[in-house]
Design a protein that fits this description.
Shape: elongated
CATH topology of the largest domain: Rna Polymerase Sigma Factor, Chain: A
CATH superfamily of the largest domain: RNA polymerase sigma factor, region 2, helix turn helix motif
Helix content: 55-70%
Oligomer: single chain
Largest sheet: none
CATH architecture of the largest domain: Orthogonal Bundle
Order of helices and strands: HHHHHHHH
Strand content: under 5%
Radius of gyration: 19 Å
Number of domains: 2
Number of strands: 0
Length: about 190
């Protein structure tokens, strides 16, 4: 491993280079984070093109606000905070574009099976889950997106939301409880 190879640098080292004016080093952060950020933005907006645009916006913001990064701090929460802010900015501008995914395209069916009825039921449940997520208040949906789909640790989410880890745990618990209630209500409605 060569220590002068940016691919071998930690996120903090890459971000230090970006802060010092090496904007080419940003591509290493992009390679490391763009998929997770895309998944997060996609869940927040339910729009593939918009999610791609928001990811691009996040990296423009990383360059623009690189001086706000505090050296030695984890990079992931800082970048996800920018993704969160980009999504919120878009939604505040009246851009709440929530449409259920077509044929489950955004919700991976991890159990491809030969029984079409079971697959159809699974797809319907996934669609209901997506709709239930969309019915949650923004702050609850957001914390679930970070914890479940953004694959962030509670400490990273706490840093991103500027709160304690305990507060994040409570928020995730409450969000999951409300999601479960909304999902069950929608399931009862669908059955009647």
């Amino acid at each position: 491993m060569r220590r002068d190879d940016p691919e071998q640098f930690t996120d903090q080292e890459v971000m230090r280079r970006v802060r010092d004016g090496d904007s080419a080093a940003l591509r290493y952060l992009f390679d490391r984070y763009h998929r997770r950020l895309f998944a997060f933005c996609l869940r927040m907006t339910a729009n593939r093109e918009l999610a791609q645009d928001l990811v691009q916006d996040v990296f423009v913001r990383v360059l623009r606000y690189r001086d706000s990064y505090q050296p030695g701090r984890p990079v992931a929460p800082w970048i996800f905070r920018m993704a969160r802010n980009a999504s919120i900015d878009h939604l505040r501008k009246g851009g709440r574009e929530v449409a259920p995914p077509e044929d489950g395209e955004d919700w991976v069916d991890p159990e491809p099976g030969p029984v079409p009825v079971e697959r159809l039921q699974r797809r319907e449940e996934l669609g209901r889950l997506k709709q239930a997520l969309d019915r949650l208040p923004e702050e609850r949906r957001e914390v679930l997106m970070m914890a479940r789909f953004g694959e962030m640790k509670y400490a990273e989410i706490a840093d991103c939301l500027d709160c304690s880890v305990g507060a994040v745990k409570v928020r995730v618990h409450r969000a999951m409880k409300q999601l479960r209630e909304v999902f069950l209500e929608m399931t009862r409605e669908a059955a009647s």
